[in-house]
Every structure is written in structure tokens, then in C-alpha cells.
Write a structure and sequence with these properties.
The complex is a heterotrimer of chains A (94), B (313) and C (296). Chain A has 94 residues and is an alpha+beta fold. Chain A has a domain of 61 residues: Roll (Ubiquitin-like (UB roll)), CATH 3.10.20.520. Chain A has 1 helix and 3 strands, in the order ββαβ. Chain A has a 3-stranded antiparallel sheet with strand order 2-1-3, with helices on one face. Chain A is elongated, with a radius of gyration of 17 Å. Chain A starts with 6 loop residues before the first strand and ends in a 39-residue tail after the last strand. In chain B, helix 2 packs antiparallel against helix 4, helix 4 packs antiparallel against helix 7 and helix 5 packs across helix 12. Chain B is globular and about 70 Å long. The radius of gyration of chain C is 20 Å and the shape is globular. The chains are: A alpha+beta (94), B mainly alpha (313), C mainly alpha (296). At the B-C interface, helix 3, helix 4, helix 7, helix 12 and helix 13 of B face helix 1, helix 3, helix 4, helix 5 and helix 8 of C. Chain B: Keywords: Oxidoreductase. Chain B: Pfam families: PaaA_PaaC. Chain B: This is 1,2-phenylacetyl-CoA epoxidase subunit A. Chain B: One of its GO terms (biological process) is phenylacetate catabolic process.
Chain lengths: 94, 313, 296
């Protein structure tokens, strides 16, 4: 019953001039779908200009030391961003 | 040898550094994490349903876009969290089977029905607000992949909470029927939102070890108090009240006093007898089972493509 | 990061640009909104409604997959496509309202028109699932045909004499090309995958094909709006070419045209719809209509 697709690691270049950075992983049946899924899952707020996907099983690791990803805000789907919602300044903690 | 490893693990956790996937970790730590993260992932996925219920009927195109984007985010959150469990050796497919077989739980709040569009606002404000209280401390939980997933999730949750509050403010400026709708939704969701922090500390079984492992950072009652204190001025600003006669500021404690939710109802819902438990699980099961042929087909195509590539090479 | 207060901790971010970015630009900022003098405003309104309703109604259908897709990644992908289409619909309905000049905004047009005033093609409105109306294969075949047709239409519309339509087309074309690619990727996988997926794809093509012919039928409004509107009858060979390539890779056969009789010469562009449309409109509009004067 459980036919899981393989796991892929996703790397995104946040903007030109930066390295690709690991942002997470996802499942996909093959590389072409993986890179498309990565676009939808990890860059839906326009956080990247380039995506790499690598089969998780193809990674050889020395140390698990990883850094957090770097993201850019989206220029389009503005409703995804908290500042789109006008809240009076005197409402605490929101 | 194991003692060395265990000592290193304890030291890493105690010094607030992160445990990473290939580090040695005690079996109990791994098991507890998988259970906790999976339960959190399941909550995100089941949590799509009560809000998804209103996408087709959203009363303006702007609200429709916001709601769809929000429910989509929840799928993303579930995905990030399942990925975190996979760094611990779990498998998303197996976890999904456990969910639909009722072997793993999800947050009970999603077993309540969404009856009006005001519920979309109140879920954003109160339910996501409570989730943020629970989740922000987890951004520095000891397990690296979980902490990183939580940072991303918390950032997106802040969009969710603000859109909820903004919807309610807009509705409160509207007609009397809309204001009544908002108050009705607040009345229905207030107590379940307090239950989101879990049972009182003296009845909570997992807290102590999880606090020591830095998987959990605050007790249920601490977080509940924080949530009540934060929500009160927001309610006043909005012009709604909470359905709790005991709720009032206590200057001596420097906190609000408040009544206890109906814990019997809580345990009933946790036990599978909430208003929507069977509906939510059946919905998830149907999506998973209806999708099986699609997942199989894509896997079969990929296998054929690999074989033909190897044949050529 | 401070953790004394949950909300402060969210705001106190080193990478504050992440969630609190500013400087959002309206999608059509700087675009000339004057109605070209050579254009009949009434026709332009009708044409904007045709295009806007195509996107709105298909978005409504696709959004129904939310929480029901075969896998989480696909749930997110279908929601993205629905959001793109909804975004296009909002721009187009807004344009229709402003050209009309009677104070109707996107919501007045989406929520307060009756079924017979909607101008979308039938392909957008038919129920292709989830649920008894179809399945994932039907949804993919419909999306493949719709987006292939829209790519052909929008690529020409970029040269429209109406500057707003041209701008909407330029923005929407990139989105539609992605939708077409997504559908094509799936069509190939499902057509080739297993016996069951192949069988479902063949059935899906049978289900969708009677609604394809309407896409290439020019309505009187489109014919009168030369230079502003795209003549749909010009699109057929381009669309057929795209579909042939995908169908071949998928191991499927593209049926020839199935001419479907209109009702007294009228179809979606004239406001004559399938039986499914009334239910779709009723569900979409119910809340908005039941609270007149409410603000959302």
C-alpha cells in the first residue's frame, strides 16, 4: 500500500551572487518532478532564483553541520506576508 | 563507548547546541521526537480541512486568495515536519498510514467544526495564536531539523495570525450580523484554544523528560497563562469578549486569572469522540487512498525511465 | 531572538526581510488604464469577462483539490495554479468593471452576476474531480488542454491594443506556461505509468474532448474586437501541435475534433452553460449574497 516516492534534498540560490543553500527536502517520483515540486514548496514566496535537487541517498556526508536558509520576500503574492494586513499599532503582540 | 556518546549527547543538549541527524542519540529521544513531530505534522495536514471547508464559499476574491494560500501553507508545514521525522528514520507514507488508522494523534482543535466565515478569522487569531505560543519556543528545540522547520513555520504563522485578526477587525466594522458572527465564533473557539496547550501540568505525563531533553521548552500551564495574558488586550481592541466569567486581571500575580476548560470534553475529543474526528480522518484516508494509483503510476514511470536509461548506457 | 514573548520573538529577527518585506508593487503598476478610443467599451467589458471568468471558474474547480491531492507536493502545486488563475481573474474582472464605469468591482462581478451572465467556456466549469465528477487524470487532461489553449491565446494577447489586457497577458503567460508544463509532466507519467493510470487517462480524454471544440469558436464579440481580442479560430494548429507532442510522449492518441452542438447557437461565451455551472455559482456566491452590505 505504501509506495513512497524517494526523498530529495533541495538547495536554493536566494539571489544572484549567493551559493545554493540547503532549504529542506521533499518527495518526488523523479528529478524533473522534484525540481518542480521544489519550486512550489520552497520558493512560493519567491525565495530563490535557482534550485538544485539531489537524491537524498546520493549525498555522502562528513558532518551534519548545516546552516539556515536565506530567503527573500515575494514581490507578487503580497497576501502571504504579515505586513499586508493593516493592524493598528496599539494592538499588542500582533 | 555508549557512555561516551551519551555524555556527549547530554553535553550538547545542556549547552543549548543542536543535535543533528547523524549524531548519536538515545532511543527514547528519537522515539519521543518522531512521535511529537509526526503528531505536529498530522495536525497541520488535518488542520487544512476546517479552513479548506470555506475556500469555495469565501465572500470576496481577496479573502479566497488569502484562505487558499493559508491552507496551502499548512500543507507545506506538514511537509517540512514530515521531512524532519525522516531525518530520524521515519517514513512519511508509514506515518500517514498510522494517522488514518488512528494509531497516531493530531491536535484536537481540528475536531471542531467551522460553521461560519468568522471562524476563518478566529482560527487565525486564536488557534494560530495559540499555536505560535506553543511553537516559538520550539524554534530553539534541541533537534536541529525540527528547530529549523519550526523557524520557517513560525514565520509563516505570523502571516496567518495577522490575516485572521485583520478579517475580524474588518467584520467588526461591518454590519451587526457580522459582529454577532464574530462573537459567536469567539465563544465557540475560546475554550478549545485553551485546550491546545494540553492538560494541566500535574496531569501531563511527558513533560519532565521532554523538558530535560530540550524537546519541550515550557510547561503547558506556563504557555496557557502567557496566551491568556496576550489575548485579553487583543480581544478588548477588537470589541469581543471571552466566554469566561472568571477571567480578570490579578494585580498581585501580574497575570490574568481564568477558568478551566471542560477537561472532560477535552479527553472525549482526544479519545476520538469529538464533533468531527471521524470525518477528518475519513477525509484524509480518502485522499490518500484515491491518490494511490497516481503515486504508483509516477513511480512506475520513473522506474521505466531508469531502466531504459541504463539500457542505453 | 527573545523568547519571553512569543510574538516579539517573531518580530525580532535578524533576517527581518524574510516575512516583513516591504515595497510590494501592484501587478499592473504603471500600466496605462485609458480605454483605447477605437474600441467599443461594451465589447471590451464582455471580452474581459470572458477571459476573467475562464480563470475564475477553473480556479474555483482546482481549489477543490486542496487537502485532497494524491500527495502533499501536488496539493501545494495545484493550489499554486489555482492562486495564479485567481490572480488573473481579479485583474480581468477589475478591468471589466472599470471599463464599464458603473462602479462594479471584482467582487460585484464575481458574486452578484447570475449564472447566465458568466462568459467562461464550458471546459473551465465541468466537474473533473475530486469526487464523483472525475479524478486526478481528468483534472490533468482538462488542465493540459486549458493551459495549452490559454498559452496560445495570451501570447497573442500581449500585443492587444488594450494596454491592460496586454499587461495581464504578459504576466499571466509565464504562469500559464508553468501550468501547461505541470500538466504535461503528469500526462506523460500517467499515460505511461501503469495499466490503471493509462486506462484512466484514456477515459479522461474521452470525458474532456467534447468540450475542446468550443475553445476555437469565435464569438461575435471577439470578432468585432480585432486588434484587441485574439481570434480563437487562429489558435487551433498551435494547440494541436502542443497536445500532439504531449500525447505522443504519454502513449495516448489525440482524438480529432468532436463538434458539439451549441444550444440555439449559444454556448459559454453567450452565457449558456452546462448543468454543473449553476451549482458552482450557487456555492461560490452563497455567503456573499446572504449578507448584503457586509464588508470582508
Amino acid at each position: 500500500m505504501s509506495t513512497s516516492w524517494p526523498l530529495w534534498e533541495v538547495f536554493v540560490r536566494g539571489k544572484r551572487g549567493l551559493n545554493h543553500v540547503h532549504v529542506g527536502s521533499l518527495h518526488a517520483p523523479d528529478a524533473e518532478m522534484a525540481v518542480r515540486n521544489a519550486r512550489d514548496v520552497y520558493t512560493r514566496r519567491n525565495e530563490g532564483v535557482s534550485i538544485w535537487v539531489v537524491p537524498a541517498e546520493a549525498i555522502t556526508a562528513s558532518s551534519p553541520d548545516e546552516k539556515d536558509p536565506f530567503f527573500e520576500p515575494s514581490g507578487d503574492k503580497v497576501y502571504r506576508h504579515p505586513t499586508f494586513y493593516a493592524i493598528p499599532e496599539d494592538v499588542p503582540h500582533l | 563507548m555508549v557512555d561516551d556518546l551519551a555524555a556527549r549527547f547530554e553535553h550538547t543538549v545542556a549547552s543549548e547546541a543542536r543535535i543533528e541527524p547523524r549524531d548519536w542519540m538515545p532511543d527514547g529521544y528519537r522515539r519521543t521526537l518522531i512521535r511529537q513531530i509526526a503528531q505536529h505534522a498530522h495536525s497541520e495536514i488535518i488542520g487544512m480541512q476546517p479552513e479548506g471547508n470555506w475556500i469555495s464559499r469565501a465572500p470576496s476574491l481577496r479573502r479566497k486568495a488569502i484562505l487558499l494560500a493559508k491552507v496551502q501553507d499548512e500543507a507545506g508545514h506538514g511537509l517540512y515536519l514530515y521531512a524532519a521525522t525522516e531525518t530520524l528514520g521515519a517514513d512519511r507514507g508509514e506515518l500517514t498510514e498510522k494517522l488514518i488508522d488512528g494509531k497516531q494523534k493530531y491536535s484536537s482543535i481540528f475536531n471542531y467544526p467551522t460553521l461560519t466565515f468568522a471562524d476563518m478569522g478566529v482560527i487565525g487569531w486564536l488557534v494560530d495564536g495559540a499555536a505560535i505560543c506553543n511553537q516559538v519556543p520550539l524554534c530553539r528545540t534541541s533537534y536541529g531539523p525540527y528547530a529549523r522547520a519550526m523557524i520557517r513555520i513560525c514565520k509563516e504563522e505570523s502571516f496567518h495570525q495577522r490575516q485572521g485578526y485583520e478579517l475580524l477587525m474588518t467584520m467588526m466594522r461591518g454590519t451587526q450580523a457580522q459582529r454577532d458572527m464574530v462573537q459567536d465564533a469567539v465563544d465557540r473557539w475560546w475554550w478549545p484554544s485553551l485546550m491546545m496547550f494540553g492538560p494541566p501540568d500535574e496531569e501531563s505525563s511527558n513533560t519532565e523528560q521532554s523538558m530535560a531533553w530540550r524537546i519541550k521548552r515550557n510547561t503547558n500551564d506556563e504557555l496557557r497563562q502567557k496566551y491568556v495574558d496576550m489575548s485579553m488586550p487583543q480581544a478588548a481592541k477588537l470589541g469581543v469578549t471571552f466566554p469566561d466569567p472568571e477571567l480578570k486581571w490579578n494585580p498581585e500575580r501580574g497575570h490574568h486569572d481564568f477558568g478551566q476548560p471542560d477537561w472532560e470534553e477535552f479527553w472525549q475529543v482526544v479519545g476520538g469522540h469529538g464533533p468531527c474526528n471521524s470525518q477528518r480522518v475519513a477525509h484524509r484516508r480518502k485522499a490518500h487512498e484515491d491518490g494511490a494509483w497516481v503515486r504508483e503510476a509516477a513511480a512506475a514511470h520513473a522506474a521505466k525511465a531508469r531502466r531504459s536509461q541504463e539500457g542505453v548506457a | 531572538m527573545s523568547f519571553d514573548n512569543a510574538y516579539e520573538a517573531l518580530i525580532d529577527q535578524e533576517d527581518a526581510h524574510w516575512a516583513f518585506g516591504t515595497g510590494f508593487s501592484a501587478p499592473l503598476e504603471g500600466v496605462d488604464r485609458e480605454v483605447p478610443t477605437s474600441v467599443d467599451a461594451k465589447d471590451l467589458v464582455a471580452y474581459c469577462l470572458m477571459l476573467g471568468d475562464d480563470s475564475l471558474i477553473l480556479s474555483q474547480r482546482l481549489a477543490a483539490w486542496c487537502s485532497r491531492a494524491p500527495e502533499l507536493e501536488e496539493d501545494i502545486a495545484l493550489a499554486n495554479i489555482a492562486l495564479d488563475l485567481l490572480g488573473q481573474a481579479r485583474l480581468l474582472l477589475t478591468r471589466a468593471g472599470e471599463v464599464e464605469g458603473e462602479g462594479r468591482d471584482e467582487d460585484a462581478l464575481a458574486y452578484l452576476r447570475d449564472e447566465r451572465e458568466f462568459r467562461n467556456v464550458h471546459l473551465a466549469e465541468i466537474d473533473c474531480g475530486p469526487g464523483p465528477g472525475g479524478d486526478f487524470a481528468t483534472t490533468i487532461v482538462r488542465l493540459l488542454v486549458f493551459s495549452s489553449w490559454k498559452v496560445a491565446q495570451f501570447s497573442r494577447l500581449r500585443g492587444s491594443a488594450d494596454p491592460v489586457l496586454a499587461a495581464v497577458a504578459a504576466k499571466g503567460l509565464k504562469e500559464l506556461a508553468y501550468h501547461r508544463d505541470h500538466a504535461a509532466q503528469w500526462a506523460v507519467r500517467l499515460g505511461d505509468g501503469t495499466e490503471e493510470s493509462h486506462r484512466r487517462m484514456v477515459a479522461a480524454v474521452d470525458r474532456v474532448w467534447p468540450f475542446v471544440d468550443e475553445l476555437f469558436h469565435a464569438n461575435a464579440v471577439e470578432s468585432r474586437l480585432a486588434g484587441v481580442a485574439v481570434d480563437p479560430s487562429e489558435l487551433r494548429s498551435e494547440v494541436d501541435g502542443v497536445l500532439d507532442a504531449v500525447f505522443e510522449a504519454a502513449g495516448l492518441t489525440r482524438p480529432g475534433p468532436i463538434p458539439t452542438a451549441f444550444v440555439a447557437g449559444q454556448a459559454g461565451r453567450d452565457g449558456v452553460h452546462t448543468e454543473a455551472m449553476g451549482f458552482l455559482v450557487a456555492e461560490m456566491q452563497h455567503l456573499h449574497r446572504s449578507l448584503p452590505g457586509a464588508v470582508w
